[in-house]
Amino acid sequence: MTADLAVVGAGPAGLAAAVTAAGRGLDVTLLDAAERPGGQIHRHPARGPVPRPVRRLTRRLRGVTHLPAHHVWTVVRDGDTWLLHCVAGPDEAPATVRARAVLLATGAYERQLPFPGWTLPGVVGAGGAQAMLKGGLALPGRRVVVAGSGPLLLAVATTLAAAGARVPALVEAADYTAYARRLPALVRNPGKLAQGALHGGSLLRHTTRLLTRHAVTAAHGTRRVEAVTVARLDADWRPVPGTGRRVPCDVLAVGHGLVPQLELATGLGCATRRTPDGTPAVAVDGRQRTSVPGIWAAGETCGVGGAELARTEGEIAALCVAGDASAALARRRARLRAFADAMAAAHRPRPGWTDWLDDATEVCRCEEVTAGRVRHAVAELGALDARTVKLLTRAGMGWCQGRVCGQAVARLAGEDPAPDRRPLSCPVPLSQLAHLPEAGPEAGPAPEAPAPEAPGAE
Amino acid sequence: MKPAPFSLTFDGRRLTALPGQSIAAALWSAGILAWRTTRHGGAPRGAFCGMGTCYDCLATVNGRPNQRACLLPARPGDTVTTQEGTGHDG
Amino acid sequence: MSHVPDAVIIGAGVVGAACAYYASRAGLDVAVIDRGPVAGGTTGAGEGNLLVSDKEAGPELDLALLSIRLWRELADVLPPETEYEPKGGLVVAPDETALTALRAFAEAQRQAGVEAYEADADRLRDLEPRLAPGLAGGFHYPQDAQIQPAMAAAHLLRASGADVRPGEEVTGVLTDRQGAVRGVRTTRGDLHAPAVVNATGTWGGRIAELAGVHLPVLPRRGFVLVTEPLPPGLVRHKVYAADYIADVANGSAALQSSAVVEGTPAGPVLIGATRERVGFDRTLSTAALRRLAAQATALFPVLGGVRAIRAYHGFRPYLPDHLPAIGPDPRVPGLHHACGHEGAGIGLAPATGLLAAAALCGGRPALDVRPFRPDRFPEQKGPAA
Fold it and tell me: Which SUPFAM superfamilies does the UniProt entry name for this protein (chain B) (predicted)?
């Protein structure tokens, strides 16, 4: 059975696309790694209230084949269709979906910049803390410092405060006045301004101190975080000597914005572009087509820009797959993209952040590789990029495959992060790989037949 | 209708979880922040990214090692144990 | 005015690094240039197999035996991060037919100086307790070893004291009026030297072309699977299966090997590699992954429940007769080659470096280099086949 369209990711972009395409009569399969639709932004507990935007869209999911808990680990061409190979459910069962067109709406994950003590229990991703609170009604503590950079921090602090946490400080490395330079983009987005003001207001009621051009430069504790050091930053994000002070807390929620999740797209050979905050994103045309015919992309995968932009792009992509277009959607997309670019530029990490690291700071959490070893590989062993640092230190070779340390390692190696390449987008049991369906011919020439030669390998 | 809480164990200790909570959320709710030690340094780790990206929250659940606690839904009677090293040791 | 080195080595992979190391040790002053970082090409995609077991008696095996000895010496010089492990290889035969063929193969190797010991089914289980039951037997090759290739290249370069210039691309080979080499042109300027060594592996044909000679190096893609970290001792040797495969095409039969399965000091088990002639195609082949996983789980059923967390590929440089090109190129005085090692470049690097250094100094080679002559491929009209 072949779907007209397979949508990967059930966040705002994927949901909007699936609903729109199904509404045009297409046979749509929607795959998502999570148990429940909504993506990271609309996390919700299983039996709790479903967020309104999700409710509105999921009501219309009738006619869409929704496959939750399906993690697509690769998409490969098979003749004139696509095969999406998945690891499904808690038992990691194999599943394969065949489709004529594919929309990648794989979203984003949080950018982390390491600092001493960031591996202590109680230091959590800001987006993760919010997701756990929304989805699991759980907080790892009561006194939460929120730190990093980006508009998400305001939302996180607000959510935490509303759930009863005390947020003594919101520490933002950038300067919000940087937005002023991009005022035209803001003025065209009155909704965004109102949202910002709302966050500010509710925070004030909860007595949170907003510190811009500051950063948490260290977390302290033995078995868990007990306090953080907050220091003022110069324009390059270097800590200003003598400005550090200790803030007691039992949780630090930290993140430096979001970065697009790209590996399915790069695995297919889709071209990428560099966004104003220095991270790569999938390049698409005005109708969300990637450089690979038959593959569309929408939402954060194409550059982080929020739920409204993601929904808009999802609709545009679905219309295009169905052979249609909308001028109004295109105008909305252009307006929201301009705003997203302004935000990205304002929160782009400045090079001085690497001064937060001492040589003993672990940069790669999985393989426990320190900043000192990364610097040695760069300065002494001829590593010019994150890939070579990985080969020479194992930074990025562990379970997360560099998703957490990749941005930091690239910058320590002196480059902007390269587009992610991970042929397996999640761990796959070897028994599943060994029993992959022997489908029809794949892209490119068939693997060569056994050659009559001496046994050998690498 | 209020969903009924259920119980699971962590290293033999009985915890209460709510339907829909992940293993990590159930552990956090019980004040537990670490359920793994690292392979080299033996350092304590728990949930970090909270969305399945970082694999810091790997736990052994019902004897199966290297499960992402932040994604895995808690089920009544689950047995969660602190995971050491590769999870396959011993 | 910058000083003039005795030789410029193009390529900062493991072969270029070994050339630099042995040339420096012979008293030469060398520069190493690479358009990318150290170990950025096939070296970085290698598994670090230092094997004699997979080579039939002949010139490549002689090169491998010399290399195995040299790697053992180098292990004392290089830091422990290079993860040199003289762990030995284990080649298993699924049935009696394969075992009989393997016996003949090993006997010829033994004549050439390889240590190979037959292991019956019980002995196999002693050597590798997690092996699948029901295997007919196999051979233990204690000389087989393993190294972390990128680290090996980086530390060989460091130990050489060479002027290492990563991120600099060679755009031309400079020659004098008589046609002899006098240096290279790079993206950063000219670098003069009386000798140039082409150690650019899969890209060796292009450098040869810049120098005006024909060297038909072609890419052969290989995928490697990497598992989640596993406890030490799960897989103790470099293990692969040899099968006796009837070759329908020419009515004969040949030994065909499976992917090599091996543990690493860092924990993951490596499974590699496939062999495909698909040019520089970088798209994932699920057929390749299926074959690797099927072969590995057939040898070690315990791996079935283990997860692959990574797959990567590299492009092995191969020449039509599957032997490398090593030594001076008689067509262009001053031009030397050290490339085309197919899937054995890590293993063969030290011997290659030693031979290249001898050629640069005009010294006697440690073994017969005639089979590796770079001008052995007659130029053909049209694009290289």
Answer: 2Fe-2S ferredoxin-like
Question: Are the CB atoms for C277 and C289 separated by under 8 Å?
Answer: no
| Per-residue pLDDT reduced to its tens digit, C107-135 | 999 999 999 999 999 999 999 999 999 99
Q: Hey, is C278 helix, strand or coil?
A: coil
For residue C307, the chain B residues in CB contact (below 8 A) are 66
Q: Is residue B90 part of a domain?
A: no
Cis omega (within 30 of 0) on the bond before C98?
no
Domain that holds residue B16: 6-84
**pTM recorded for the entire structure:** 0.92
pLDDT grade for A200, boundaries at 50, 70 and 90: low
Option in A382, A399, A444 nearest C281 (CB): A444
Q: Which of C163, C195, C176, C156 is nearest to C71 (CA)?
A: C156
Contact A438 C154 (CB under 8 A): no
Amino acid at A220: H
Interface size A-B, in CB pairs within 8 Å, comes to 122
Q: Is C208 left (phi over 0), alpha (psi -120 to 50) or beta?
A: alpha
Work out the minimum CA distance from C264 to partner chain B, whole angstroms.
Answer: 13
Structure tokens at A430: 């070897």
CB distance from C229 to chain B under 8 Å? yes
| Residues in chain B, overall count | 90
Number of domains in chain B: 1
Q: Is A440 on the interface with C (CB under 8 A)?
A: no
CATH architecture of C90-142+218-318: 2-Layer Sandwich (3.30)
Identity of the residue numbered C77: V
CATH number of the domain that residue B69 is part of? 3.10.20.440
Beta strands in A137-242 (DSSP E): 144-149, 169-172, 209-212, 214-221, 225-232
C residues 247-306 near A, CB within 8 Å?
247, 249-250, 252, 254-257, 259-260, 266, 268, 272-278, 281-294, 296-297, 303-306
* Domain presence at residue B89: no
CB pairs under 8 A between B and C: 15
Other CB atoms within 10 Å distance of the CB of residue C347:
31
Contacts of A56 (CB under 8 A, 6+ apart): none
Q: Report the amino acid identity of residue C26.
A: A
d(CA B13, CA A358): 38
Interface test with C, best of B38, B53, B83, B86 (most C CBs within 10 A): B86
Tens-place pLDDT, residues A123-172: 999 999 998 888 777 888 999 999 999 988 988 998 898 888 999 999 99
C-alpha–C-alpha distance, residues C289 and C295, integer Å: 10
Q: Chain A within 8 Å of B18 (Cβ-Cβ)?
A: yes
* For C310, nearest residue in chain A (alpha carbons): A424
- Spans of all domains in chain C: 1-88+143-217+320-385, 90-142+218-318
Decide if A142 touches B, using CB distance below 8 A: no
Give tens-digit pLDDT for A385-434: 999 999 999 999 999 999 999 999 999 999 999 998 999 999 999 999 99
Asked if the model's pLDDT at residue A191 lies above 90, the reply is: no
A403 interaction partners in chain B (CB closer than 8 Å): 53-54
Domain C1-88+143-217+320-385: CATH architecture, name and number where available? 3-Layer(bba) Sandwich (3.50)
Q: Which two tokens stand for residue A408?
A: 């930091």
Over the stretch B19-32, which tens digit does the pLDDT of each residue have?
Answer: 889 999 999 999 99
Nearest CA in chain B to C267: B86
Q: Closest partner residue to A124 among B25, B48, B72, by Cβ? A: B48
Per-residue pLDDT band for A63 (boundaries 50, 70, 90) equals confident
Q: Does B86 touch chain C (CB under 8 A)?
A: yes
In chain A, the residue whose alpha carbon lies closest to the alpha carbon of C39 is A388
Chain A CB contacts of C105 below 8 Å: 454
